[in-house]
């Protein structure tokens, strides 16, 4: 599904969008990963399969969309490990508590879990697919009165007096913004478990921070991951915002070059990329393009690394053809600031020079 420029992605994009297919046919561009969804950037979310969940015993799939988010705490140790494996162990342990006697539930009760290290994980099977599609939900078992219309998020720790660590809090804000964006849920509709049943959950300290959570999520939805203000910049390899080591040569050979020259290097399995920086005015979705001269002796799969809000995304470009024009590298969610946006890597397969000439970044 494609979206028209300047239309909010909240209503225009549902599901992963593969951008640049036309450029692939005409300019040899192949995306190696899915792009971002919706207004808010999609965080990395480990599926049940990734953390090694047991099979559920039967789940109820609902056609209605959720209209709220319900915040929980796990009431576990505040000194637990913060690695990815620690997070996966937590998810597995919670599923055991919920599926084993005396609960005997069909699966993990909550839809998602966030660890103290900030890792976001699917809790109940099919929750992630519904979320990424922006359609329907699986009935939960996390809060009576909200199981059929609220997304339950467990946060690792005991927050009666202690506050969540920074990594967890930042992930919670980003993830709530993504949920709200996918399902069109207002940031005001974020609640605590105790709002639906007599319980100490999610702890006095975390419950007191829910107004701040709503405020930070709303800020994300208002301008931290959607359509940025009109912006366009071209960074040529001769600009001060370009950087490369002495291993990158300079050439004026091709008439298809952008500006006066371009940079080239032999492909090699080394960390020696050429970097393009840009001052991104606001977090949001941006179209990124590259200009390069094409030649049969250049590389067939030059890796372009895009530093997105969701982590590094790699786009491989066949620089043997399609040069002398702007070639799409896709539309990506970027964070604000003056920083590296694109790197051209020498870590390419095959033979033929990898080329770094110019990039263009435009608000989507």
UniProtKB/TrEMBL annotation:
Pfam families: Amidase_2, Golvesin_C. Signal peptide: none annotated. One of its GO terms (biological process) is peptidoglycan catabolic process. SUPFAM superfamilies: N-acetylmuramoyl-L-alanine amidase-like (SSF55846). One of its GO terms (molecular function) is zinc ion binding. Residues 55-203 form the N-acetylmuramoyl-L-alanine amidase domain. InterPro entries: Amidase/PGRP_sf, Amidase_domain, CBD-like_Golvesin-Xly, PGRP, PGRP_domain_met/bac, TAT_signal. It comes from the Bacteria. Residues 43-197 form the Peptidoglycan recognition protein family domain. Belongs to the N-acetylmuramoyl-L-alanine amidase 2 family. PANTHER family: PEPTIDOGLYCAN RECOGNITION PROTEIN (PTHR11022), PEPTIDOGLYCAN-RECOGNITION PROTEIN LC-RELATED (PTHR11022:SF41). This is N-acetylmuramoyl-L-alanine amidase.
């Amino acid at each position: 599904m494609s979206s028209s420029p300047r239309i909010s992605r909240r209503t225009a994009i549902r599901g992963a969008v593969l951008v640049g297919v036309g450029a692939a046919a005409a300019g040899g561009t192949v995306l190696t990963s899915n792009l971002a969804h919706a207004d808010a950037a999609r965080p990395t979310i480990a599926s049940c399969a990734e953390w090694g969940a047991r099979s559920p015993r039967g789940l109820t799939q609902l056609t209605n969309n959720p209209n709220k988010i319900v915040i929980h705490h796990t009431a576990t140790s505040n000194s637990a490990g913060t690695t990815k494996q620690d997070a996966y162990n937590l998810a597995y342990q919670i599923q055991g508590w919920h599926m084993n006697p005396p609960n005997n539930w069909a699966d993990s009760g909550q839809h998602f879990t966030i660890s103290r290290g900030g890792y976001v994980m699917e809790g109940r099977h099919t929750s992630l697919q519904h979320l990424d599609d922006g359609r329907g939900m699986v009935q939960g078992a996390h809060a009576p009165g909200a199981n059929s219309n609220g997304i339950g998020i467990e946060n690792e720790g005991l927050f009666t007096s202690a506050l969540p660590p920074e990594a967890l809090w930042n992930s919670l804000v980003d993830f709530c913004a993504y949920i709200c964006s996918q399902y069109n849920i207002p940031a005001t509709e974020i609640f605590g478990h105790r709002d639906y049943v007599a319980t100490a959950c999610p702890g006095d300290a975390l419950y007191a921070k829910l107004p701040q959570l709503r405020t930070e999520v709303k800020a994300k939805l208002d301008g931290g991951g959607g359509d940025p203000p009109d912006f366009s910049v071209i960074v040529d390899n001769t600009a001060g915002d370009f950087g490369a080591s002495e291993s990158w040569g300079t050439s004026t050979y091709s008439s298809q070059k952008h500006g006066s020259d371009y940079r080239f290097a032999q492909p090699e399995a080394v960390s020696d990329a050429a970097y393009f920086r840009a001052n991104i005015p606001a977090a949001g979705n941006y179209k990124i393009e590259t200009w390069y001269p094409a030649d049969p002796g250049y590389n067939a799969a030059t890796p372009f690394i895009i530093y997105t809000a969701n982590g590094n995304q790699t786009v491989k470009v066949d620089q043997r053809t399609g040069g002398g024009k702007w070639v799409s590298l896709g539309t990506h969610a970027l964070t604000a600031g003056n920083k590296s946006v694109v790197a051209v890597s020498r870590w390419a397969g095959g033979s033929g020079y990898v080329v770094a000439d110019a990039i263009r970044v435009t608000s989507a």
